[in-house]
Amino acid sequence: MIPATGATEVLRPSPGKWLAMVAISGALVWIGTRILGTHPLVGWSCIVLFGLCGALAVLNLVPGASRLVLDADGFEIVSLFRRTRVRWPEVSRFGSTRVGMHRLVGFDFVDGHAGSERLRRVNRNLSGFQAALPDTYGRSAGDLAAQLDARLAAHRAETLTRS
Predict the structure, then answer these.
(1) Cα gap 23→79, rounded to integer Å
(2) What is the domain partition of the chain in residue ranges?
(3) What is the dihedral sign for C-alpha 87, 90, 93, 98?
(4) Tell me, what's the pLDDT at 25?
(5) Which residue ranges traverse the bilayer (predicted)?
């Protein structure tokens, strides 16, 4: 069920995914400590790289660090406490895409949207979309894209009836 266009909905990432990342990173850090004596460069590389990955995963578990807020005006992406606001009139379409092994929700901006044209072109070549959400917030990419598309269509219909 899709909430009314004026209703605010907050989607949070699945904590299980981030807990798994913490566990895997911890195991790889442990392996790095075990091989320090025989392969110091590889050991330190594992400790530093996977220690940073684990720290980022722990940060994503902090309440308020990551979420997607949908409201009547648009949506706000919060990723590692950094906020990005996108208004519905700035978006032309949503869709599901694959980047590497990950399914994501991609979106395109309307023509004339301010921002880096070069970055949008690179993103389009990689994923088929100009931008993408950083997470699927515990849903399938297709379901989340359909939900966002429905909100976008409802906003457009509401805008037309007001004018």
Answers:
(1) 21
(2) 88-162
(3) negative
(4) 96
(5) 18-36, 42-62
